[in-house]
Amino acid sequence: MEPTSLKELLRGIAETKIDAPVTAVVTDSRKVAPGSLFVAIRGERVDGHDFAAGALEQGAVAVLAEHPIPGLPPERVFAAADVRGALIRMAGNYRAQYHPLVVGVTGSVGKTTTKEFCAAVFSAFGPTLKTEGNQNNEIGMPATLFRLDEETRYAVIEMGMDHSGDLHKLTLAARPSAAVITRIGVSHIENLGSQEKILEAKMEICDGLPEDGLLVVNGDDPRLAAVVPPRHIRKVQFGVDSRFAQVTACDIISSAKGERFVIRDKVNGEFSAEIPAVGRHNIYNALAAYTLATRLGLDPVRCAAALSDYRTTGMRQRVIEAGGVRLIEDCYNANPDSMRAALEALATLSEGGRRVAVLGDMLELGAISDAAHLEIGARAARGVDCLFTFGPGGALIAKGAQKAGLSQVHHCASKQEAAALLRAYCRPKDTVLFKASRGMAFEEILEDYLGQA
Asked: How many helices and strands (H and E) does the chain possess?
């Protein structure tokens, strides 16, 4: 963060006579240093207000809190009923000082991967800031905006949401020139109730777009294909099957190393592309990045070539070889769409050996949870040789697979049991997929397997 006056950061939030420069905005008291502004957030386990006094002692310029804090000088504690909203507003005030080309990325599935593809493409044209990991919420997105500086030419900002209204706040702070919506799935359906409501919430990203803004959407998603953005926003579709998409992929060749295909662009022509990521879903993510960049005026030849610079992050389809067994770590998150995509990738990555899936709960699905887990079990039965499951949702996946005719199904009482059974079952040339929602911590099964393989 570049030094910014406290008055400027608090514009529209609170009045202050202190005109000291702020060099960092932090929500973790352990990161407080002289010149910081400490934002006291009340979390599920820790209340930041308990650390406000210590933050001032460590040199914080001021504290932003939900209420005045007894014993602390009132001129250095600023109250905001909605501290998280105030943090987003401060990030917007900071962002307004700089003028990079900002793009926003949202969607029910594929946000982080699409963000990484976008960053790879824009980085070919100049210094590019991107959201680190999946820091896409009301705390993580402001942290990304606070990293802007005069050198930033492009910024790729991932925006997530749990409830209606979340994206409205984030996009007004980021003020993107263009946005991508990857897909409308069922993530957060527990909070929003239907895919139609999810679509409405995702379309809030348009609220921050300018008069000549650009919205890029997946034309193979029927809801996004049909959605009508505000009149001042230009909508462009990408896809594989859509007849109406401006950008499509054809001549697809899949291998364990990734996907090769031809980008067919109705405006710019055809270009060969290659991405180091497996699965049809990653072709969509790459097309989103290409479409976004080219419709913002960047050279299509360089955009297509830059897709090969993509690198996976976190626990998303990381491929490990151990004892001749290929292991696919895809433990970051899971919903029905990403489960299907992962099972498709398993089929592509398997080269001569058996296909093994280790699957667990998909969280936050609400009323559709049971049916979704049963359906994934049936889907797995059509493409794997052996299935291991863990967790309550995993039990339903196992049930669905058995009902669909898969004989090699093992529902495990513990992660340790799952790892032990895997060690006994797997042999060289087998390929194993690990997939569940982040809250299930399925990487622990993989770590156990690797530690004792």
From this structure: 16, 21
Compute CA 430 distance to the chain's CA centroid, rounded to the nearest angstrom.
29
Tally the C-alpha atoms within 13 A of residue 282's C-alpha that lie toward its C-beta.
30
Residue with tokens 């409205």: 168
- Sequence length of the chain is 453
| Cα 129 from Cα 149, distance rounded (Å) | 9
Find the helix or strand (DSSP H, E) in which 300 lies.
helix 300-306
Give the C-alpha distances (Å, rounded to integers) separating 323 from 12, 255, 363, 448: 59, 21, 32, 14
- Degrees to nearest 5, angle at CA 425 with 428 and 383: 80
Pick the closest to residue 296 from 169, 128, 171, 134 (CA basis).
128
Question: pTM for the whole thing?
Answer: 0.84
What burial letters (b/e) apply to 85-97, b meaning 16+ CB within 10 Å? Answer: ebbbbbbbbbbee
Residues 6 or more apart whose Cβ sits within 8 Å of residue 28: none
Contact criterion met (CB below 8 Å) for 381 and 410: no
What is the rounded CA–CA span in Å between residue 77 and residue 66? 10
| DSSP code, position 385 | S
CB atoms within 10 A of CB 348: 16
Q: Give strand pairing partners of 63.
A: 38, 77
Q: Are strands 214-218 and 178-181 parallel, antiparallel or unpaired?
A: parallel
Three-class secondary structure of residue 254 per DSSP: strand
Joined tokens for residue 428: 């060289």
Strand order across the beta sheet in which 36-39 lies: 24-26, 36-39, 62-65, 77-79
Over the chain (453 residues), what is each successive 10-residue block's mean pLDDT?
A: 96 90 96 96 92 96 94 94 96 97 95 95 98 89 97 97 94 98 84 90 97 97 96 97 96 89 98 92 96 98 97 70 89 87 85 92 91 96 96 97 96 96 94 93 92 60
